[in-house]
Amino acid sequence: MVKVVVLATGGTIAGVGASGTQPGYSSGEMSIEDMIAAVPNIENLAHIQGEQIANVGSQDMSFAIMIRLACRINELLQSEDVSGVVITHGTDTMEETAYFLNLTVKSTKPVVMTGSMRPSTAISADGPLNLYNAVGVAADPDTAKRGVLVVVNDRIHGAHALTKTNTTSVETFLSPINGLVGTVIYGSATYFRAPFRKHTYTSEFSVDGATRFKRVDIFHACADMPADLIDCSISQGARGIVIAGHGNGNMNKACLAAAKSAAAKHIVIVRSSSVASGTVGRNVEVDDDAGQFIVSDELNPVKARILLMLALLKDRSLEEIQELYFTY
Ligand code: GLU
Question: Are 75 and 170 in contact (CB under 8 A)?
Answer without folding.
Answer: no
